Amino acid sequence: MMNSSDPATVSTKRLVADWTALMRTFIQPEDAATRRRLLKYMEQILFGLQNFLQDHVGITEAVSLLDLANRHMNSQIPEMPEKKLADVITDLIEDIAPHAVNVASPYFVGHMTSAIPFFMIHLKTIVAALNQNAVKVETSKVVSVVEKQVLARLHRLTFGKEAAFYREHVQSVHTTLGSFVEDGTLANLTALWVARNRLLAAADTPVDIEADGLAAAFRKAGIARCVVLVSRMAHYSLQKAAGILGIGHRNVIPIDTDAAYRLDMISLKRTVADLHRNAPDTRVLAVVGIAGTTETGSVDPLAALAALCREHHIHFHVDAAWGGPTLMSPRYRHLLSGIAAADSVTIDGHKQFYMPMACGMVLFNDPAAMDCVAYHARYINRPGSVDLGIKSLSGSREAVSLILDSALNIMGSRGYALLIDHGVGLAAALATVIQGHPDLELTSPPALNILTYRWCPADLDPRCDGITPEERARRIDILNGLNERVQRLQREAGKSFVSRTTLRLPAFPDHETVVLRCVLMNPLTTMDILKEIIDEQQSLVVRILSKGAAGLAGAQT
Ligand SMILES: *Cc1c(COP(=O)(O)O)cnc(C)c1O
Questions:
Q1: Which run of H or of E encompasses 516?
Q2: Other CB atoms closer than 10 Å to residue 286's CB: what's the count?
Q3: How many angstroms separate the CA atoms of 254 and 257, rounded?
Q4: Measured on CA atoms in the order 101, 105, 110, 116, is the torsion positive or negative?
Q5: pTM over 0.85
Q6: Ligand 1 within 6 A of 319 CB?
Q7: Separation of 120 CA from ligand 1 center, angstroms?
Q8: How far is 254 from 233, CA to CA, in rounded Å?
Q9: Is there an atom of ligand 1 within 6 Å of 184 CB?
Protein backbone atom coordinates (compact mmCIF):
# COMPACT_ATOMS: atom_id res chain seq x y z
CA MET A 1 0.00 0.00 0.00
CA MET A 2 1.21 3.51 -0.77
CA ASN A 3 2.42 5.40 2.24
CA SER A 4 0.21 8.45 1.88
CA SER A 5 1.74 10.32 4.81
CA ASP A 6 5.08 10.60 2.99
CA PRO A 7 5.14 14.15 1.64
CA ALA A 8 7.26 13.08 -1.32
CA THR A 9 4.54 10.65 -2.36
CA VAL A 10 1.91 13.33 -2.02
CA SER A 11 3.58 15.84 -4.28
CA THR A 12 5.30 13.76 -6.97
CA LYS A 13 2.26 11.91 -8.23
CA ARG A 14 1.05 13.69 -11.35
CA LEU A 15 -2.29 15.32 -10.83
CA VAL A 16 -4.99 14.98 -13.44
CA ALA A 17 -8.46 16.38 -13.79
CA ASP A 18 -10.55 13.32 -14.46
CA TRP A 19 -14.05 12.30 -13.50
CA THR A 20 -12.95 10.28 -10.44
CA ALA A 21 -10.85 13.12 -9.04
CA LEU A 22 -13.63 15.56 -9.77
CA MET A 23 -16.24 13.50 -7.94
CA ARG A 24 -13.96 13.31 -4.93
CA THR A 25 -13.61 17.11 -4.75
CA PHE A 26 -17.33 17.25 -4.04
CA ILE A 27 -17.16 14.73 -1.24
CA GLN A 28 -13.93 14.40 0.72
CA PRO A 29 -10.21 15.17 0.94
CA GLU A 30 -8.15 13.27 -1.62
CA ASP A 31 -6.24 11.14 0.88
CA ALA A 32 -5.43 10.57 4.52
CA ALA A 33 -2.47 12.98 4.43
CA THR A 34 -4.66 15.79 3.17
CA ARG A 35 -7.24 15.03 5.80
CA ARG A 36 -4.61 15.19 8.55
CA ARG A 37 -3.24 18.48 7.33
CA LEU A 38 -6.70 19.96 7.06
CA LEU A 39 -7.57 18.87 10.57
CA LYS A 40 -4.29 20.17 11.96
CA TYR A 41 -4.97 23.71 10.80
CA MET A 42 -8.73 23.66 11.31
CA GLU A 43 -8.24 22.52 14.88
CA GLN A 44 -6.05 25.59 15.48
CA ILE A 45 -8.46 27.93 13.73
CA LEU A 46 -11.61 26.61 15.35
CA PHE A 47 -10.30 26.20 18.90
CA GLY A 48 -7.31 28.48 19.26
CA LEU A 49 -8.15 31.42 17.06
CA GLN A 50 -6.18 34.13 18.88
CA ASN A 51 -3.06 31.97 19.05
CA PHE A 52 -3.45 30.93 15.44
CA LEU A 53 -3.65 34.56 14.30
CA GLN A 54 -0.75 35.50 16.56
CA ASP A 55 1.43 32.69 15.21
CA HIS A 56 0.55 32.79 11.53
CA VAL A 57 -0.87 36.13 10.41
CA GLY A 58 1.03 39.29 9.60
CA ILE A 59 4.33 38.04 10.97
CA THR A 60 6.48 38.96 7.96
CA GLU A 61 7.17 42.63 7.44
CA ALA A 62 10.38 42.15 5.48
CA VAL A 63 8.63 41.58 2.15
CA SER A 64 7.33 44.65 0.37
CA LEU A 65 4.01 44.89 -1.42
CA LEU A 66 5.96 45.23 -4.66
CA ASP A 67 7.74 41.93 -3.99
CA LEU A 68 4.40 40.31 -3.25
CA ALA A 69 2.94 41.70 -6.47
CA ASN A 70 5.88 40.24 -8.39
CA ARG A 71 5.10 36.83 -6.93
CA HIS A 72 1.54 37.07 -8.20
CA MET A 73 1.94 37.71 -11.89
CA ASN A 74 0.43 34.48 -13.20
CA SER A 75 -2.50 35.28 -15.46
CA GLN A 76 -3.03 31.74 -16.70
CA ILE A 77 -5.46 29.17 -15.38
CA PRO A 78 -3.64 25.80 -15.27
CA GLU A 79 -5.26 23.19 -17.49
CA MET A 80 -4.40 20.31 -15.19
CA PRO A 81 -4.60 20.50 -11.39
CA GLU A 82 -1.32 21.80 -9.96
CA LYS A 83 -1.87 21.27 -6.29
CA LYS A 84 -3.59 19.03 -3.85
CA LEU A 85 -5.88 20.55 -1.29
CA ALA A 86 -3.31 19.78 1.41
CA ASP A 87 -0.70 21.85 -0.42
CA VAL A 88 -3.09 24.72 -1.08
CA ILE A 89 -4.00 24.86 2.60
CA THR A 90 -0.32 24.85 3.53
CA ASP A 91 0.34 27.64 1.01
CA LEU A 92 -2.47 29.75 2.39
CA ILE A 93 -1.29 29.39 5.93
CA GLU A 94 2.46 29.48 5.39
CA ASP A 95 2.82 31.79 2.39
CA ILE A 96 -0.23 34.02 2.39
CA ALA A 97 -1.27 34.50 6.03
CA PRO A 98 2.17 35.79 7.14
CA HIS A 99 1.77 38.61 4.60
CA ALA A 100 -1.80 39.44 5.57
CA VAL A 101 -2.60 41.91 8.35
CA ASN A 102 -3.28 40.74 11.88
CA VAL A 103 -6.25 43.00 12.40
CA ALA A 104 -7.09 41.07 15.58
CA SER A 105 -3.94 42.21 17.37
CA PRO A 106 -4.68 44.42 20.39
CA TYR A 107 -1.91 46.68 19.04
CA PHE A 108 -3.87 47.20 15.80
CA VAL A 109 -5.98 50.19 16.76
CA GLY A 110 -6.10 52.12 13.50
CA HIS A 111 -9.16 50.89 11.67
CA MET A 112 -12.74 49.72 12.09
CA THR A 113 -11.69 46.13 11.39
CA SER A 114 -10.57 44.24 14.47
CA ALA A 115 -10.77 41.02 16.46
CA ILE A 116 -13.98 39.01 16.25
CA PRO A 117 -15.29 36.46 18.76
CA PHE A 118 -14.03 32.99 17.83
CA PHE A 119 -17.56 31.61 17.44
CA MET A 120 -18.10 33.87 14.43
CA ILE A 121 -15.77 31.56 12.45
CA HIS A 122 -17.88 28.55 13.41
CA LEU A 123 -21.10 30.32 12.44
CA LYS A 124 -19.56 31.44 9.16
CA THR A 125 -18.49 27.87 8.43
CA ILE A 126 -21.98 26.55 9.04
CA VAL A 127 -23.47 29.26 6.82
CA ALA A 128 -20.96 28.36 4.09
CA ALA A 129 -21.81 24.68 4.48
CA LEU A 130 -25.54 25.33 4.10
CA ASN A 131 -24.82 27.62 1.13
CA GLN A 132 -28.26 29.19 1.13
CA ASN A 133 -29.02 31.97 -1.32
CA ALA A 134 -31.06 34.63 0.46
CA VAL A 135 -32.31 36.15 -2.79
CA LYS A 136 -35.37 33.88 -2.84
CA VAL A 137 -37.32 31.52 -0.64
CA GLU A 138 -36.78 28.59 -3.03
CA THR A 139 -33.07 28.59 -2.18
CA SER A 140 -33.26 29.60 1.46
CA LYS A 141 -36.68 28.90 3.03
CA VAL A 142 -36.14 29.42 6.78
CA VAL A 143 -33.38 31.97 6.12
CA SER A 144 -35.96 34.36 4.70
CA VAL A 145 -37.93 34.39 7.93
CA VAL A 146 -34.84 34.50 10.15
CA GLU A 147 -33.70 37.52 8.18
CA LYS A 148 -37.02 39.25 8.70
CA GLN A 149 -36.77 38.45 12.41
CA VAL A 150 -33.29 39.89 12.83
CA LEU A 151 -34.23 43.02 10.87
CA ALA A 152 -37.15 43.44 13.28
CA ARG A 153 -34.79 43.07 16.23
CA LEU A 154 -32.54 45.83 14.90
CA HIS A 155 -35.51 47.97 13.90
CA ARG A 156 -36.86 47.72 17.43
CA LEU A 157 -33.46 48.63 18.87
CA THR A 158 -33.31 51.66 16.58
CA PHE A 159 -36.89 52.90 16.32
CA GLY A 160 -38.44 51.32 19.43
CA LYS A 161 -41.98 51.06 18.14
CA GLU A 162 -44.76 49.22 19.98
CA ALA A 163 -44.83 45.44 20.24
CA ALA A 164 -47.98 45.36 18.08
CA PHE A 165 -46.12 47.08 15.24
CA TYR A 166 -43.52 44.32 15.25
CA ARG A 167 -46.13 41.57 15.50
CA GLU A 168 -47.73 42.99 12.39
CA HIS A 169 -44.60 43.48 10.33
CA VAL A 170 -42.00 41.00 11.47
CA GLN A 171 -43.13 38.32 9.02
CA SER A 172 -45.41 40.31 6.73
CA VAL A 173 -44.85 39.46 3.07
CA HIS A 174 -46.11 42.88 2.01
CA THR A 175 -43.88 45.12 4.09
CA THR A 176 -40.22 45.16 4.96
CA LEU A 177 -38.39 46.74 7.86
CA GLY A 178 -35.08 46.90 6.04
CA SER A 179 -32.59 45.01 3.98
CA PHE A 180 -29.27 43.23 4.24
CA VAL A 181 -26.66 44.34 1.73
CA GLU A 182 -22.97 43.77 1.23
CA ASP A 183 -21.73 46.67 3.33
CA GLY A 184 -22.36 50.16 4.65
CA THR A 185 -21.70 51.67 1.24
CA LEU A 186 -24.59 49.76 -0.31
CA ALA A 187 -26.76 50.43 2.73
CA ASN A 188 -26.27 54.17 2.23
CA LEU A 189 -26.92 53.72 -1.49
CA THR A 190 -30.17 51.85 -0.76
CA ALA A 191 -31.33 54.57 1.63
CA LEU A 192 -30.72 57.33 -0.93
CA TRP A 193 -32.26 55.19 -3.68
CA VAL A 194 -35.48 54.98 -1.67
CA ALA A 195 -35.31 58.67 -0.72
CA ARG A 196 -34.85 59.66 -4.36
CA ASN A 197 -37.75 57.55 -5.59
CA ARG A 198 -40.07 58.72 -2.84
CA LEU A 199 -39.22 62.37 -3.45
CA LEU A 200 -39.86 62.12 -7.16
CA ALA A 201 -42.95 59.97 -6.74
CA ALA A 202 -44.38 62.50 -4.32
CA ALA A 203 -44.38 65.12 -7.07
CA ASP A 204 -47.82 63.87 -8.03
CA THR A 205 -46.98 62.59 -11.49
CA PRO A 206 -47.57 59.25 -13.17
CA VAL A 207 -43.88 59.05 -14.09
CA ASP A 208 -42.14 56.06 -12.56
CA ILE A 209 -38.52 57.01 -12.06
CA GLU A 210 -37.33 53.40 -12.09
CA ALA A 211 -39.10 52.83 -15.40
CA ASP A 212 -38.65 56.14 -17.14
CA GLY A 213 -35.35 57.33 -15.74
CA LEU A 214 -34.17 60.35 -13.87
CA ALA A 215 -34.44 62.87 -16.70
CA ALA A 216 -38.14 62.11 -17.23
CA ALA A 217 -38.80 62.26 -13.50
CA PHE A 218 -37.02 65.60 -13.14
CA ARG A 219 -38.89 67.02 -16.11
CA LYS A 220 -42.27 65.91 -14.83
CA ALA A 221 -41.54 67.25 -11.36
CA GLY A 222 -40.33 70.52 -12.83
CA ILE A 223 -36.99 70.38 -11.07
CA ALA A 224 -33.45 70.62 -12.31
CA ARG A 225 -31.38 69.34 -9.43
CA CYS A 226 -31.49 67.30 -6.22
CA VAL A 227 -29.03 67.77 -3.38
CA VAL A 228 -28.01 65.76 -0.35
CA LEU A 229 -26.96 67.73 2.71
CA VAL A 230 -24.44 66.17 5.08
CA SER A 231 -21.58 67.34 7.24
CA ARG A 232 -18.15 67.60 5.67
CA MET A 233 -17.16 64.56 7.76
CA ALA A 234 -19.40 62.32 5.64
CA HIS A 235 -18.23 58.90 4.53
CA TYR A 236 -17.34 58.95 0.83
CA SER A 237 -19.92 56.23 0.13
CA LEU A 238 -22.56 58.96 0.05
CA GLN A 239 -20.75 60.52 -2.89
CA LYS A 240 -20.64 57.18 -4.68
CA ALA A 241 -24.35 56.78 -4.07
CA ALA A 242 -25.09 60.24 -5.47
CA GLY A 243 -22.99 59.42 -8.53
CA ILE A 244 -24.76 56.11 -9.19
CA LEU A 245 -28.24 57.51 -8.57
CA GLY A 246 -27.73 60.25 -11.12
CA ILE A 247 -27.81 62.97 -8.47
CA GLY A 248 -24.18 63.81 -9.07
CA HIS A 249 -21.69 63.80 -6.23
CA ARG A 250 -21.12 67.52 -6.55
CA ASN A 251 -24.66 67.78 -5.27
CA VAL A 252 -23.68 66.20 -1.98
CA ILE A 253 -23.24 69.53 -0.25
CA PRO A 254 -20.80 69.56 2.67
CA ILE A 255 -22.08 71.40 5.72
CA ASP A 256 -19.65 72.94 8.20
CA THR A 257 -18.98 71.29 11.52
CA ASP A 258 -18.40 72.61 15.02
CA ALA A 259 -15.18 72.25 17.02
CA ALA A 260 -16.07 68.63 17.83
CA TYR A 261 -16.70 67.79 14.15
CA ARG A 262 -20.48 67.59 14.53
CA LEU A 263 -22.71 69.06 11.87
CA ASP A 264 -23.37 72.72 12.61
CA MET A 265 -27.15 73.32 12.64
CA ILE A 266 -26.85 77.02 11.90
CA SER A 267 -24.92 76.35 8.70
CA LEU A 268 -27.41 73.68 7.71
CA LYS A 269 -30.39 75.97 8.26
CA ARG A 270 -28.69 78.69 6.29
CA THR A 271 -28.08 76.30 3.40
CA VAL A 272 -31.69 75.08 3.40
CA ALA A 273 -32.99 78.66 3.47
CA ASP A 274 -30.61 79.66 0.66
CA LEU A 275 -31.79 76.81 -1.51
CA HIS A 276 -35.42 77.73 -0.90
CA ARG A 277 -34.82 81.34 -1.77
CA ASN A 278 -32.30 81.14 -4.59
CA ALA A 279 -32.79 77.76 -6.21
CA PRO A 280 -36.51 77.10 -6.69
CA ASP A 281 -35.82 74.24 -9.10
CA THR A 282 -33.58 72.41 -6.60
CA ARG A 283 -34.97 69.87 -4.12
CA VAL A 284 -33.31 68.53 -1.01
CA LEU A 285 -33.36 64.77 -1.52
CA ALA A 286 -32.10 63.94 1.95
CA VAL A 287 -30.36 65.29 4.98
CA VAL A 288 -27.88 62.81 6.42
CA GLY A 289 -26.86 62.78 10.07
CA ILE A 290 -23.83 60.73 11.03
CA ALA A 291 -23.84 58.66 14.21
CA GLY A 292 -20.13 58.07 14.57
CA THR A 293 -18.11 59.74 11.84
CA THR A 294 -15.46 57.52 10.32
CA GLU A 295 -12.60 59.84 11.16
CA THR A 296 -13.44 61.22 14.60
CA GLY A 297 -16.41 59.19 15.87
CA SER A 298 -18.47 62.37 16.23
CA VAL A 299 -22.26 62.15 16.47
CA ASP A 300 -24.32 64.80 14.71
CA PRO A 301 -27.22 66.48 16.58
CA LEU A 302 -29.74 63.87 15.44
CA ALA A 303 -32.78 65.25 17.28
CA ALA A 304 -32.32 68.74 15.84
CA LEU A 305 -31.78 67.27 12.38
CA ALA A 306 -34.95 65.23 12.71
CA ALA A 307 -36.94 68.32 13.67
CA LEU A 308 -35.61 70.30 10.72
CA CYS A 309 -36.40 67.47 8.31
CA ARG A 310 -39.92 67.10 9.68
CA GLU A 311 -40.53 70.81 9.25
CA HIS A 312 -39.36 70.79 5.62
CA HIS A 313 -40.60 67.29 4.68
CA ILE A 314 -37.10 66.09 3.88
CA HIS A 315 -35.98 62.45 4.06
CA PHE A 316 -33.77 62.08 7.13
CA HIS A 317 -31.12 59.38 6.84
CA VAL A 318 -28.80 58.46 9.69
CA ASP A 319 -25.48 56.89 8.79
CA ALA A 320 -24.92 54.80 11.92
CA ALA A 321 -22.64 52.32 10.11
CA TRP A 322 -20.19 52.73 12.96
CA GLY A 323 -22.15 54.01 15.94
CA GLY A 324 -25.46 52.12 15.62
CA PRO A 325 -24.62 49.36 18.12
CA THR A 326 -24.06 52.05 20.76
CA LEU A 327 -27.84 51.82 21.18
CA MET A 328 -27.28 48.58 23.10
CA SER A 329 -25.33 50.39 25.82
CA PRO A 330 -27.59 51.81 28.56
CA ARG A 331 -24.72 54.10 29.49
CA TYR A 332 -24.17 55.67 26.06
CA ARG A 333 -27.34 55.17 24.02
CA HIS A 334 -28.44 58.71 24.85
CA LEU A 335 -25.66 59.93 22.56
CA LEU A 336 -27.79 58.78 19.62
CA SER A 337 -31.08 60.19 20.82
CA GLY A 338 -33.14 61.40 17.91
CA ILE A 339 -32.24 58.41 15.75
CA ALA A 340 -35.75 56.98 16.19
CA ALA A 341 -37.11 59.87 14.15
CA ALA A 342 -34.97 58.96 11.13
CA ASP A 343 -36.58 57.74 7.92
CA SER A 344 -33.70 55.35 7.28
CA VAL A 345 -30.64 54.13 9.18
CA THR A 346 -27.47 52.37 8.02
CA ILE A 347 -25.75 49.90 10.35
CA ASP A 348 -22.71 47.74 9.61
CA GLY A 349 -22.61 44.23 11.07
CA HIS A 350 -18.88 43.82 10.41
CA LYS A 351 -18.04 46.82 12.55
CA GLN A 352 -19.48 46.96 16.07
CA PHE A 353 -21.55 43.80 15.82
CA TYR A 354 -18.16 42.09 15.44
CA MET A 355 -19.30 39.97 12.52
CA PRO A 356 -16.97 38.50 9.91
CA MET A 357 -16.69 40.47 6.64
CA ALA A 358 -19.04 41.79 5.36
CA CYS A 359 -22.56 42.68 6.42
CA GLY A 360 -24.36 45.95 5.80
CA MET A 361 -27.93 46.70 6.81
CA VAL A 362 -30.37 49.48 6.14
CA LEU A 363 -33.53 49.96 8.17
CA PHE A 364 -36.60 51.99 7.25
CA ASN A 365 -38.91 53.63 9.74
CA ASP A 366 -41.87 53.14 7.38
CA PRO A 367 -42.36 49.43 6.52
CA ALA A 368 -43.74 50.48 3.10
CA ALA A 369 -40.74 52.67 2.23
CA MET A 370 -39.04 50.03 0.10
CA ASP A 371 -42.10 49.53 -2.13
CA CYS A 372 -40.62 52.11 -4.49
CA VAL A 373 -37.60 49.89 -5.22
CA ALA A 374 -39.45 46.59 -5.74
CA TYR A 375 -38.45 44.43 -8.70
CA HIS A 376 -40.00 41.20 -9.90
CA ALA A 377 -38.85 38.50 -12.28
CA ARG A 378 -40.75 35.74 -14.07
CA TYR A 379 -38.91 32.91 -12.39
CA ILE A 380 -38.44 34.33 -8.86
CA ASN A 381 -39.42 37.31 -6.74
CA ARG A 382 -43.05 37.04 -7.81
CA PRO A 383 -45.44 39.58 -6.32
CA GLY A 384 -46.72 38.51 -2.92
CA SER A 385 -43.91 36.00 -2.28
CA VAL A 386 -41.55 36.16 0.71
CA ASP A 387 -38.60 36.45 -1.68
CA LEU A 388 -36.19 38.92 -0.12
CA GLY A 389 -34.74 39.74 -3.51
CA ILE A 390 -37.85 41.76 -4.41
CA LYS A 391 -36.72 44.75 -2.40
CA SER A 392 -32.97 44.45 -2.36
CA LEU A 393 -30.11 46.03 -4.22
CA SER A 394 -28.22 42.73 -4.13
CA GLY A 395 -29.19 39.61 -6.00
CA SER A 396 -27.61 36.39 -4.78
CA ARG A 397 -26.19 36.71 -1.32
CA GLU A 398 -25.00 34.81 1.71
CA ALA A 399 -27.30 34.07 4.66
CA VAL A 400 -25.41 36.44 6.98
CA SER A 401 -28.62 36.99 8.94
CA LEU A 402 -28.06 33.55 10.48
CA ILE A 403 -24.74 34.76 11.86
CA LEU A 404 -26.14 37.99 13.28
CA ASP A 405 -29.25 36.37 14.74
CA SER A 406 -27.11 33.72 16.45
CA ALA A 407 -24.56 36.28 17.66
CA LEU A 408 -27.32 38.36 19.26
CA ASN A 409 -28.43 35.25 21.13
CA ILE A 410 -24.90 34.40 22.26
CA MET A 411 -23.89 37.93 23.31
CA GLY A 412 -27.14 39.53 24.38
CA SER A 413 -27.36 43.30 24.23
CA ARG A 414 -25.54 43.31 27.59
CA GLY A 415 -22.54 41.56 26.03
CA TYR A 416 -22.37 44.08 23.22
CA ALA A 417 -22.82 46.90 25.72
CA LEU A 418 -19.72 45.70 27.60
CA LEU A 419 -17.73 45.93 24.36
CA ILE A 420 -19.06 49.40 23.57
CA ASP A 421 -18.44 50.65 27.11
CA HIS A 422 -14.90 49.27 27.09
CA GLY A 423 -14.08 51.12 23.86
CA VAL A 424 -15.64 54.41 24.91
CA GLY A 425 -13.97 54.21 28.33
CA LEU A 426 -10.60 53.44 26.79
CA ALA A 427 -10.91 56.37 24.39
CA ALA A 428 -11.68 58.73 27.26
CA ALA A 429 -8.70 57.42 29.25
CA LEU A 430 -6.40 57.76 26.25
CA ALA A 431 -7.64 61.32 25.72
CA THR A 432 -6.63 62.13 29.31
CA VAL A 433 -3.13 60.70 28.74
CA ILE A 434 -2.79 62.71 25.52
CA GLN A 435 -3.94 65.92 27.18
CA GLY A 436 -1.43 65.43 29.99
CA HIS A 437 1.48 64.82 27.59
CA PRO A 438 3.60 67.91 26.79
CA ASP A 439 4.27 66.86 23.17
CA LEU A 440 0.79 65.66 22.24
CA GLU A 441 -2.29 67.55 21.13
CA LEU A 442 -5.76 66.03 21.25
CA THR A 443 -7.29 67.05 17.91
CA SER A 444 -10.77 65.61 18.37
CA PRO A 445 -12.48 64.71 21.64
CA PRO A 446 -13.74 61.12 21.66
CA ALA A 447 -17.55 61.17 21.61
CA LEU A 448 -17.54 57.40 21.09
CA ASN A 449 -14.49 55.17 20.81
CA ILE A 450 -12.54 57.00 18.11
CA LEU A 451 -10.12 59.82 18.76
CA THR A 452 -7.47 61.74 16.90
CA TYR A 453 -4.33 63.46 18.12
CA ARG A 454 -0.97 64.57 16.85
CA TRP A 455 2.60 65.07 17.90
CA CYS A 456 3.21 68.75 18.50
CA PRO A 457 6.42 69.44 20.48
CA ALA A 458 6.34 72.87 22.16
CA ASP A 459 9.18 74.35 20.07
CA LEU A 460 7.23 73.54 16.90
CA ASP A 461 3.80 74.56 18.13
CA PRO A 462 2.17 76.76 15.47
CA ARG A 463 -0.38 78.02 18.00
CA CYS A 464 2.15 79.98 20.07
CA ASP A 465 1.99 83.76 20.03
CA GLY A 466 4.55 86.08 18.54
CA ILE A 467 5.55 84.11 15.47
CA THR A 468 5.30 85.39 11.93
CA PRO A 469 2.74 83.93 9.52
CA GLU A 470 5.64 82.42 7.56
CA GLU A 471 6.98 80.72 10.66
CA ARG A 472 3.50 79.48 11.46
CA ALA A 473 3.08 77.98 8.00
CA ARG A 474 6.53 76.40 8.27
CA ARG A 475 5.65 74.77 11.59
CA ILE A 476 2.37 73.45 10.26
CA ASP A 477 4.24 71.79 7.40
CA ILE A 478 6.89 70.34 9.67
CA LEU A 479 4.32 68.87 12.01
CA ASN A 480 2.39 67.35 9.12
CA GLY A 481 5.59 65.73 7.86
CA LEU A 482 6.50 64.56 11.36
CA ASN A 483 3.13 62.94 12.03
CA GLU A 484 3.03 61.28 8.62
CA ARG A 485 6.46 59.85 9.17
CA VAL A 486 5.76 58.62 12.69
CA GLN A 487 2.67 56.80 11.48
CA ARG A 488 4.46 55.20 8.57
CA LEU A 489 7.56 54.14 10.51
CA GLN A 490 5.43 52.62 13.25
CA ARG A 491 3.36 50.69 10.72
CA GLU A 492 6.49 49.48 8.95
CA ALA A 493 8.05 48.35 12.22
CA GLY A 494 5.13 45.96 12.34
CA LYS A 495 4.17 45.80 15.99
CA SER A 496 1.53 48.51 16.30
CA PHE A 497 -0.80 50.33 14.00
CA VAL A 498 -2.69 53.60 14.28
CA SER A 499 -4.08 55.22 11.13
CA ARG A 500 -3.85 58.76 9.94
CA THR A 501 -6.09 61.27 8.26
CA THR A 502 -6.29 65.04 7.85
CA LEU A 503 -8.60 67.45 9.63
CA ARG A 504 -9.28 71.14 9.40
CA LEU A 505 -8.53 72.13 12.97
CA PRO A 506 -10.57 75.08 14.28
CA ALA A 507 -7.30 76.96 14.92
CA PHE A 508 -6.15 76.49 11.29
CA PRO A 509 -9.29 76.23 9.18
CA ASP A 510 -7.37 76.90 5.98
CA HIS A 511 -4.95 74.02 6.42
CA GLU A 512 -5.32 70.28 6.23
CA THR A 513 -3.65 69.06 9.40
CA VAL A 514 -2.28 65.53 9.57
CA VAL A 515 -3.59 63.68 12.64
CA LEU A 516 -3.22 60.16 13.99
CA ARG A 517 -6.39 58.16 14.54
CA CYS A 518 -7.22 55.43 17.06
CA VAL A 519 -10.27 53.20 16.80
CA LEU A 520 -10.73 51.40 20.11
CA MET A 521 -12.93 48.35 19.59
CA ASN A 522 -10.71 45.40 20.45
CA PRO A 523 -11.59 44.15 23.97
CA LEU A 524 -8.01 42.86 24.29
CA THR A 525 -6.58 46.37 23.94
CA THR A 526 -5.65 47.85 27.31
CA MET A 527 -4.40 51.20 28.55
CA ASP A 528 -0.93 49.67 29.00
CA ILE A 529 -0.88 48.68 25.36
CA LEU A 530 -1.94 52.18 24.31
CA LYS A 531 0.85 53.66 26.42
CA GLU A 532 3.33 51.33 24.73
CA ILE A 533 2.07 52.55 21.35
CA ILE A 534 2.53 56.19 22.41
CA ASP A 535 6.01 55.42 23.81
CA GLU A 536 7.05 53.79 20.55
CA GLN A 537 5.86 56.88 18.68
CA GLN A 538 7.75 59.13 21.07
CA SER A 539 11.02 57.37 20.35
CA LEU A 540 10.29 57.70 16.62
CA VAL A 541 9.66 61.44 17.08
CA VAL A 542 12.98 61.84 18.89
CA ARG A 543 14.78 59.89 16.18
CA ILE A 544 13.17 61.84 13.34
CA LEU A 545 13.76 65.28 14.86
CA SER A 546 17.35 64.47 15.79
CA LYS A 547 18.08 64.05 12.08
CA GLY A 548 16.63 67.48 11.24
CA ALA A 549 15.45 67.96 7.65
CA ALA A 550 16.81 64.56 6.64
CA GLY A 551 14.60 62.88 9.22
CA LEU A 552 11.52 64.41 7.69
CA ALA A 553 12.55 63.73 4.11
CA GLY A 554 10.45 61.15 2.35
CA ALA A 555 7.48 61.95 4.51
CA GLN A 556 5.26 62.58 1.50
CA THR A 557 3.61 59.21 1.08
C1 LIG B 1 -17.63 52.34 7.54
C2 LIG B 1 -18.60 53.38 7.24
C3 LIG B 1 -19.42 53.34 6.10
C4 LIG B 1 -19.44 52.29 5.04
O5 LIG B 1 -18.47 51.39 5.08
P6 LIG B 1 -18.35 50.01 4.33
O7 LIG B 1 -16.88 49.87 4.28
O8 LIG B 1 -18.96 50.13 2.98
O9 LIG B 1 -19.04 49.00 5.16
C10 LIG B 1 -20.35 54.35 5.94
N11 LIG B 1 -20.43 55.33 6.83
C12 LIG B 1 -19.68 55.40 7.93
C13 LIG B 1 -19.86 56.53 8.89
C14 LIG B 1 -18.72 54.43 8.17
O15 LIG B 1 -17.95 54.51 9.26
A1: strand 513-519
A2: 28
A3: 9
A4: positive
A5: yes
A6: yes
A7: 21
A8: 8
A9: yes
